[in-house]
Design goal:
Blueprint lengths: L12 H11 L1 H34 L21 H16 L9 H7 L6 H16 L7 H18 L4 H20 L2 H13 L4 H20 L18 H33 L7 H15 L8 H10 L3 H20 L7 H19 L10 H17 L2 H12 L5 H18 L4 H8 L11 H5 L2 H4 L6 E3 L4 H7 L7 E5 L5 E6 L30 H11 L3 E5 L5 E6 H19 L3
Parallel strand pairs: 1-2
Antiparallel strand pairs: 2-3, 4-5
Helix pairs in contact: 1-2, 2-5, 2-6, 2-7, 2-9, 3-5, 3-11, 5-6, 6-7, 7-8, 7-9, 8-9, 8-16, 10-13, 10-15, 10-17, 11-13, 12-14, 13-14, 14-15, 15-16, 15-17, 16-17, 22-23
């Protein structure tokens, strides 16, 4: 872990406290509780500001809790959407100093050992609140997770926690904030494990659970209204329904893959237009106006619309129209630069897809009947699992928000089918898919940052045996007797790498007056000092070499690596990481 800034370094009694927290598992739990309280307060504040903006800007009445539940909006109010694009553009200009994407909690835990820049946390939170508050079709989950995880990262860095403990605390903070939003501590805890940390661990259970519980209790104490799903299963589900709803899980996975690809196509299309980044949300706001005019249910995160569609028992045609408009609004919002995520949107889309599935199933002659409410709950979890990941997270979300045990097993069955298909055919959640499009090799929040930190430069043996390529084999025999070294690196007249000679080959049936360059191999295959250990091993696999030179940008030899040493180092580091995960 990099050193913390001087102005954040504690002294005296605070330094002793920091050492105690760093060395004590019990102290880490106490720190997680403090982070959970902060996450609960932050989630309540973010929700209050975003919903307050919606009430003011769209003229919602006191009893109207959600924008997406409004049956019809005044057309004049729809001008708020492009105005929101303007405000977001100003926010982007104010918070963006360098041409880089803000680090979110999943990326931070996967690549940066849990270090989340405070400035990125503020930027993501501000832009997400503006996007949601002005009605864009995005949820607040990005802000919840970012603020909770960012707060945990800041606290953890201040206490100079170990890498594994910092990653656990960041996951605990993110899960706690999301759990507070739904009033669902188990959902928050499993969100931390499955989405942000990327693995279950015995040492992580207590701090993650403590943070989630303290966040939910804090949010309830200050009166935060959690997101509830006003539906329960209407009957005892027969065994045949498990198979039918497993099919729904597969359908939800296919639709979710199409949705994620569609969002990326819109995003890449907007980028090809080479519009200035602040201009994109303004255009996106204009494009959202006709969509919102046709259906206000396409706006915001969709929680109000979720309950509205379930209670209204709409026709198949109406549900299909709402589904397509919400999908289009989400793609436009995210593709044109509004900040947010697809967590909440996937819940709404999944519930509508489930109802569509139930009504379409009823058209099959002799098919056993499906209740639209049951199908909505199953589809909601299956779609969210495909987009966000975490089958246990989504199954527990249904359980904790509906308090219905009867359908949880069916939901879990569909969620597992959906998750398995997405992993096999797509391999990414929405957050890791966007990282993949940026060139990152990240499929989950599992810690792979150490693989990048362990570079060829850190592992290489410096000052390897070298000689000029125009020297003779006899000169090599004189300088490097048999057994003194296994290989010799060659350099040209300008000092650049010119190949590698295995020393034993120079002692075979070779003319001593032959230039040593005639024995050179792997002239074009080298390692760069900045290559991580994963890329180094791939290069060894591709070249089938036992040794490779490490050369700088000018082509000069700076070191040498052997395949056997790299493999041993990788195994040792993997063992160390596993011991940290399990607290050994």
């Amino acid at each position: 872990m990099t050193a913390i800034p001087r102005h954040l370094r504690p002294h005296g009694l605070l330094a002793l406290t920091r050492r105690q927290v760093r060395s004590s598992e019990t102290s880490l739990i106490g720190l997680a509780i403090i982070v959970g309280i902060g996450a609960g307060l932050s989630a309540a504040a973010l929700g209050f500001v975003a919903h307050g903006l919606q009430h003011i800007l769209f003229g919602l009445q006191p009893g109207e809790l959600h924008l997406s539940a409004i049956p019809r909006l005044d057309p004049v109010r729809l001008l708020v959407l492009p105005v929101g694009g303007v405000v977001l553009a100003l926010t982007i200009i104010a918070t963006t100093r360098a041409r880089r994407t803000a680090v979110d909690v999943v990326e931070a835990n996967a690549l940066h050992g849990g270090r989340v820049p405070a400035r990125d946390t503020g930027a993501v939170a501000a832009q997400t609140v503006v996007s949601n508050g002005f009605g864009a079709s995005v949820g607040l989950e990005a802000a919840y997770a970012q603020v909770g995880g960012g707060l945990a990262s800041l606290v953890g860095q201040w206490f100079n926690l170990r890498r594994a403990d910092l990653r656990t605390l960041v996951g605990a903070g993110s899960g706690a904030a999301l759990g507070a939003a739904f009033g669902a501590p188990m959902t928050g805890a499993f969100y931390a494990f499955e989405i942000v940390i990327g693995a279950y661990s015995p040492v992580g259970i207590a701090p993650v659970a403590a943070a989630a519980l303290s966040a939910v209790v804090t949010a309830r104490t200050i009166g935060m209204q959690p997101y509830l799903i006003a539906a329960t299963a209407e009957r005892s589900l027969p065994s045949i329904d498990y198979g039918i709803y497993a099919l729904l899980g597969i359908v939800a996975a296919l639709v979710a893959i199409a949705l994620m690809r569609f969002v990326s196509v819109v995003d890449s299309g907007v980028r090809r237009l080479k519009l200035p980044e602040p201009v994109r949300p303004i255009i996106g706001g204009v494009l959202l106006v006709p969509i919102a005019f046709l259906s206000p249910q396409a706006l915001s995160s969709g929680h109000g619309a979720l309950n509205l569609t379930i209670a209204s028992q709409l026709s198949l045609l109406a549900l299909c129209m709402i589904f397509l408009l919400k999908l289009l609004a989400s793609a436009v919002s995210l593709g044109f630069g509004f900040r947010g995520g697809l967590f909440f949107a996937s819940l709404f889309l999944g519930s509508v897809l489930g109802q569509i599935f139930a009504l379409a199933w009823a058209l099959i002659p002799g098919a056993p009947p499906l209740m639209p409410v049951d199908a909505a709950l199953v589809g909601m979890a299956a779609m969210a699992v495909a987009v966000v990941g975490g089958p246990m997270t989504m199954s527990l979300l249904v359980l904790e928000t509906t308090h219905d045990f009867g359908i949880t097993a069916v939901v879990l069955t569909a969620a597992l089918c959906s998750s398995a298909l997405v992993r096999a055919q797509f391999g990414y959640s929405f957050s890791t898919w966007r990282l993949h499009l940026r060139g990152e090799v990240v499929r989950s929040a599992r810690d792979i940052g150490w693989m990048r930190d362990l570079t060829a430069e850190r592992m290489m043996r410096r000052a390897p045996a070298t000689m000029r390529e125009d020297e003779t084999v006899a000169a090599l025999r004189e300088k490097f007797p048999l057994g003194s070294t296994k290989r010799v690196m060659l350099r040209d007249a300008a000092g650049r790498y010119a190949g590698l000679v295995q020393t034993p080959t120079a002692y075979g049936d070779v003319d001593p007056q032959e230039p040593v360059s005639s024995l050179a191999a792997y002239r074009e295959c080298t390692l760069a000092p900045t290559m991580g250990i994963g890329e180094v091993m791939r290069r060894f696999d591709q070249s089938e070499a036992d040794d490779l030179a490490v050369v700088n940008a000018e082509g000069r030899i700076v070191g040498m690596l052997s395949d056997s040493y790299v493999r041993r180092r990788y195994a040792a580091e993997m063992d160390r990481v596993q011991r940290q995960i399990y607290g050994e």
